[in-house]
Structures are given as C-alpha cells and as structure tokens.
Amino acid sequence: MQSARGDESSSERKGGEIDQVEERYEKKPTFGGKVKNHYKRFWWAHLIAFCAGFLIVSLCLVYVAMPKIAQKGIDDATLSYTSLKFMKPSLDSLTLSVDALQHSDSQFTPTLDAFNVSMHLVTDGITSEKVITQIGMPQIHAHHPDTNIVITDQKATIVDMDQVTAFAKQVLVQESIEVRMEGKTKLHLGALPVNSVNYNSSITFKALNGMKGFNITEPKVNLMAAPGEPNLTGMALIPNPSVLTVELGTVMMHISTKEKGLIGNSTIDNFVLNPGQNLLPMHAIVDTSLALGSVDKQGMVNMIIVGQTAVYNGVHLPYYEAALQSHTLTLAVNLQSLLGSI
Ligand SMILES: *[C@@H]1O[C@H](CO)[C@@H](O)[C@H](O)[C@H]1NC(C)=O
Ligand SMILES: *[C@@H]1O[C@H](CO)[C@@H](O)[C@H](O)[C@H]1NC(C)=O
Ligand SMILES: *[C@@H]1O[C@H](CO)[C@@H](O)[C@H](O)[C@H]1NC(C)=O
Ligand SMILES: *[C@@H]1O[C@H](CO)[C@@H](O)[C@H](O)[C@H]1NC(C)=O
Ligand SMILES: *[C@@H]1O[C@H](CO)[C@@H](O)[C@H](O)[C@H]1NC(C)=O
C-alpha cells in the first residue's frame, strides 16, 4: 500500500502543484479515519489479542476460580445420617453400615472419586487429630439438592483404641455427638479439568442420651431357682432416640443399693440396640435378703445399675466395657409388690 501511494504521487507531480496540494488536503485523515485505518491494517493483531484475552480469562476461570468453586461446593455441603450401624464388634474392627444424606445448595452436580475419610471425634468444638477409624467412601455422584451415600457392611478397622473408647462413652452418655470426616478426593464436572478437593465435613447426630427412660417391665421373681441360677427375670426397656444401631454382645451389669452395696448382677444376651424402643430379655441373680434389707418405707428399692462387661464371640470389648462402666443407671423397683405378687 505504501509503495503504491508513492508511485501515485510521483506520477501526479507533473500534473501541477495545485492539484497535488488539493489532493493532500483531501487525503489528510480525520481522527476517526485514523482509527479506521489502524483497524483495517492491524485487524489480525486485535483478533489475536482478543483471543488471547478470552483464553486467559477462560483459563483463569477453569484453573484458578474453578478449584475454588469446587472446594467451596464441597465445604458448603452438609452431611446427616439416616442410619448408622456398628455391628460384629471385635478387638480391632467393627462392621459399619452407613446411610447418609449429603445436602448441597449448589446447582453443580459433580462426581467425586471413591476415597478414604478418617473419622475424628469432636469434643466441645475441638477436633481430635487422632483417628477413630477410616471409612472407605464410595464414588459419589451429587444430585441437587440431596445425595444419598450408602455404605453396607464395611469392615472399619480401629485406628486408635482410646479414640474409639472416648467415642463409645460419648455415644452412650451424651444427647448428641459430633464427628469430623477428613479426606482428599478428585472432583469431576463435565469436560472441565479434574480438581483435587479436601473433604472436611462435620456431622452432629443424636446419641443414646444415657439410656434415659430405662426400665424393667414384666419383672418375675423365681423362688425356686437353684443357687447361682437367675431368680429375677424381666424385659429391659431401653429407649434409643438416635439412628444408631449398636451390637454389644452379652452385657453383664452390676446391681447395687446404697444401703447394702452389690446385691446381684443382671445379664442381657445378644444385646443389639436398635433405634426406637428396645425390649430385651434380661435375667438376674439377686440376693433377696440384701434386696429386702434395702427396701425403704414405701417398699421401694433404689437399684444402681452399672454395666461391667460386653463379650462378643467370647471376646471382651474394652471400648464398650469402659463406656458401660462410666455410666450409672438408677431404677426404683417396688420390691414389696413384686414379692407380694408371687
Ligand atoms: C483406602 O485405604 C485402603 C487401606 O489403606 C486402601 O487399600 C485403599 O486403596 C484406599 N482407597 C482409596 C480410594 O484411596
Ligand atoms: C478441617 O476443619 C477443621 C475445622 O475448621 C480444622 O480444625 C481442621 O484442621 C481441618 N482439617 C483439615 C485436614 O483441613
Ligand atoms: C418403670 O415402669 C413402671 C411400671 O410401668 C413405672 O411405674 C415407672 O414409673 C417406670 N420407671 C421409670 C424410671 O420410667
Ligand atoms: C436368688 O439367688 C441368690 C443367689 O443364688 C440367692 O442368694 C437368693 O436367695 C435367691 N433369691 C430368691 C428370691 O430366690
Ligand atoms: C452374678 O452373681 C452370682 C451370685 O453372686 C455369681 O455366682 C455369678 O458369677 C455372677 N455372674 C457374673 C457374670 O458375674
């Protein structure tokens, strides 16, 4: 273009000075024209700049903002248990089944790879760094707004016996309990690059609340029982306000009174505590003379009941035994009417 214009002006030189001046005056570009020319000549540079800008913004979104958005989506999701079962207890593991609901307000429905979480006990808002157990989480494909997470009969290895014991104590005694699940996984969302995310979710759920409402229904005294054979039987009524199912094995409790100390023991075989009201057959050996010696003016005996042992498959379970021993149940029993009814 430059050279063509040069030829043009040199050929016109002969044509006269005025012509040339007039032409120069006419061709002097306005500001708008300058801009127009600039774009005409450098359109490709602008296209490249635009594309580069678009790419940078997109890449920033995908590689800088997206991981933050993905992480925030994980952080904002809340978890609640519909059912939580601890079965087949042993010295080093329990069989765990979980039915959980993950709630998220996010419109994104990503998929999380299967991953391991460590379960930590939270006491008075402080998360223990020690691990209760590891749980293998399945692949989770999120739905909006709730996602069901199901784990069936998974062997959960006890990582730290003290933590499991503290967990069992809190479950037995407290109204509610908080645990924290921590892990790392990969998040997939459509064709977007895979993001690494931290899973760090706290869950508060109802616990056994000290078995409040414990009672013995249909108590029966058997005067004919041979020494060492159960002479008091009945049904233990144990309310469970939580969604927990706990298998304890054979549980033996001590029965005492303030007046006479230890007066006997009571046993529940194949103790499985289910959600709701539990009615479990119980048999006891009670020293009747000591029991009668503890009767007050109204004919009542105030029984102090403390769990001692939990044995599953012939194995003592120290974490459940420590929990049972840490909690006292009291029950007023009308011994006079009980003995009078025989
Ligand atoms: C979870 O942990 C177990 C045992 O440490 C391991 O074998 C398994 O591969 C882990 N699973 C995942 C998804 O990381
Ligand atoms: C998880 O969150 C809790 C509370 O915000 C924090 O104390 C803990 O260090 C976090 N854990 C990880 C692994 O980030
Ligand atoms: C136990 O049951 C008896 C009989 O149904 C009732 O009178 C008593 O109040 C109950 N005790 C407790 C602690 O609920
Ligand atoms: C119950 O059994 C104990 C221990 O065998 C015995 O001392 C007590 O007299 C028995 N009581 C009744 C009412 O049979
Ligand atoms: C319960 O008490 C009776 C009588 O004192 C005793 O013979 C028995 O061994 C005790 N049972 C357990 C499991 O401790």
TrEMBL record:
Q: Which residues cross the membrane?
A: 43-64
Coiled-coil parts of chain: none
Tell me the superkingdom of the source: Eukaryota
Pfam assignment, any one: DUF3712
Q: Which GO terms describe its cellular component?
A: fungal-type vacuole membrane
Region spans: Disordered: 1-21
* Keywords attached to this entry: Membrane, Transmembrane, Transmembrane helix
Supply the InterPro entries for this chain.
Answer: DUF3712, Tag1
Per its record, how is this protein called by name?
A: Uncharacterized protein
